[in-house]
Amino acid sequence: xxxxxxxxxxxxxxxxxxxxxxxSHLAEKQDWVHKHRANEEKLPQDLESLLNSKLGVQxxxxxxxxxxxxxxxxFWLACEEYxxxxxxxxxxxxxxxxxQFINPEAPRExxxxxxxxxxLTGLMQEPRADTFDEAQHRIxxxxxxxxxxxxxxxxxxx
Length: 158
What we know:
7 helices, 68% helix
C-alpha cells in the first residue's frame, strides 16, 4: 500500500518545496525575458533603467525572490512611494518603513552601515520627504554593485 508523502522525511519535503519556488521564479523570469525580446526591447543595461520599467522591476523582484534577497528592492520602492506621499501621511509611512526595514529587529532588515542607521533613528522624530534619501542611495549602490550584475548574468543564461 502506498504511504504517500507521509513516508518522505520532512527535510526532503522542505527541499522539494524550495526547489519548486525557485523553478516557478525561473519560469516567470524566462517569460519576462522572452516578452522583452519579442517586443524587440533592449534588456536594461543599468539598474536605473531597470527600475524605471514596470516589467524590469517585476523581473528583478522575481530574481531577488529566488535568491531570498528582495528586501533591498522592496526598501528602495517603499522610499520612492514615501517621497510621493502627502505631508500628513509622512510620519506614519516613515515609521512603517523604519519598522519594516531599518530597525535592527526588522523583519526585512536592509544592510546599512551603523552611521546611516543611527542618522535615520534621529530623523524619525520629525520625518521629511528626504528622510530616507541617503539610505535609499546606499541600498541602490549595493544593488547596482551586487545583485544587478548577478541578475544580468542570469539573463544571459536563458
